[in-house]
Amino acid sequence: MGKQSGGHVAAYSEAGRGTTMKIYLPVVDAAVERAAALVPDGPLPMGHETVLLVEDEEGVRKLAHEVLQRHGYTVLQARDGGEAVALCHSHPGEIHLMVTDVVMPGMGGRESADLVSELRPGIKVLFMSGYADRAVTEHRVLDPDTPYLQKPFTPATLVRKVREVLDR
Hints:
Blueprint: H1 2-5, E1 8-14, E2 18-24, E3 50-54, H2 58-70, E4 74-78, H3 81-90, E5 97-101, H4 109-119, E6 124-129, H5 133-138, E7 148-150, H6 155-166
Helix pairs in contact: 3-4
């Protein structure tokens, strides 16, 4: 933080008493402009489709499941690519969209999306990752025009991006 903003961090820790962190940032003389809203106003879009959610981080998976379900989607959950492929074999109904993390232990998102696309022709795929956008595309994990959601994301961003990909 010090190099980027000119500030610094001081930490003091005492056994049995805890830790105190102090963050020092430089004073800004200029007036700060209020940032425009990052998310458009208005109600979030609802859906009715079935979404296959593939995420190895339990907290992210549970939150995304809850958010999507609240917005009308039927959500199938998988902890990794292998589970996702197995769900595609066993689920009797249509699966409209696969939302998958790019990097997971075992079978990653790209490989599992390829297999799922073979099993479910026409399925749409939305990749998500905590890695920077450029790192994902520059290392050719994903093509630049592939639907992608940067983590962390807000529930509203997830719902809007899912709807956008489904409506393509």
